[in-house]
Amino acid sequence: MNQQKPTLTGQRFKTRKRDEKERFDPSQFQESIVQGLNQTGTDLEAVAKFLDASGAKLDYRRYAETLFDILVAGGMLAPGGTLSDDMTRTEFCLFKAQEDLETMQAYAQVFNKLIRRYKYLEKGFEDEIKKLLLFLKGFTESERNKLAMLTGILLANGNISASILSSLFNENLVKEGVSAAFAVKLFKSWINEKDINSVAASLRKVGMDNRLMELFPANKRSCEHFSKYFTDAGLKELSDFARNQQSIGARKELQKELQEQMSRGDAFKDIIAYVKEEMKKSNISEQTMIGIVWSSVMSSVEWNKKEELVTEQAIKHLKQYSPLLKAFTSQGLSELTLLLKIQEYCYDNIHFMKAFQKIVVLLYKADVLSEEAILKWYTDAHVAKGKSVFLEQMKKFVEWLKNAEEGEN
């Protein structure tokens, strides 16, 4: 017969839970940490050692928030960011430290060592930073500056994720300009530790790259305002990054809309009018535009999987859409851009390899591509992708073009 496994009685379990509740009392914990910090003083090496050793004796897992509050502000923070009155506190904390980059880098090391030693503090630390950012209005300007520098360094070191920036989008902080001013200091220290590319990569990883405009109130959420604000503050790199993000976003939207208009079968003249309007609005050049139009045209159809059938299908499709391509190749550079897009497309989509020459000839006959552009592409403007195959395909046609040209002269 199976022996019954012993079970905990409900009653005993309840008592244990109640004991736990009573035991959550950070005052004892706070006393110990404050006392230790008062002894180590401004020697941050000693602070790190003290925190390392105390983790074995004190319940960091349970009182993580208390621990971080003390290290940053000297004592436990009440909601809103004021120090709780009834508790002992220490002068030896981030907010009372010197306001310079070197000191903040040293503090960042203290947090870094602590979290590397006690991995389970990672999430609590990130939550703490999010909370501190929400409390910004409760802090003095000097305290905010130190927190901004520290946060920039922590982001650069990868101690926290850029998702913490979402706290800065809080309406009350944004409305009063606190978020934008804080962001300036934060990004300066972050870029100083790394560079704009590293910053951009971290922002992209958590989808923050497209949300930076939210640092400003809705009526100021424009690329122009953002650009001016951060450029004036000495962060031109960040302005350029945001501008670039904006235009990438605008191009993606445009391509999506273009594909929808094509699948609805809108008249070409309406599509062309819409695109030209968007080019003006978003300041998009014809060279950039022809790339978008080409991609849209080529993705508006299900291609046959058989190589021998796809060429026929492509010619038929492009013949139909040639007026659209023609509308955005009024400059020689746009024609070359289109040729390179076709070359890349035929190379990247392997069953189009044999179709290249036929597509180019069709677009030449449809007056989309000029002989100058084709000859320039052939002699020196092509890219490496599949070049030997494509140049070989084009050889006869190019010779014919050259002869026709001589015949005219």
User: What proportion of the residues form beta strands (DSSP E)?
Assistant: under 5%
Write the element-wise H/E pattern from the N-terminal end onward: HHHHHHHHHHHHHHHHHHH
- How many helices? The count is 19
What is the helix content? 55-70%
Largest sheet: none
Features:
Basic leucine zipper and W2 domains 1a; 19 helices; mainly alpha; activator; single chain; 0% strand; 409 residues
Short description:
This protein is an all-alpha fold and 409 residues long.
List strands and helices in order, with pairings.
Layout: H1 10-23, H2 26-40, H3 44-57, H4 64-73, H5 101-117, H6 121-134, H7 141-157, H8 171-175, H9 178-193, H10 196-205, H11 223-232, H12 236-264, H13 268-282, H14 286-298, H15 307-326, H16 332-348, H17 356-365, H18 371-381, H19 387-408
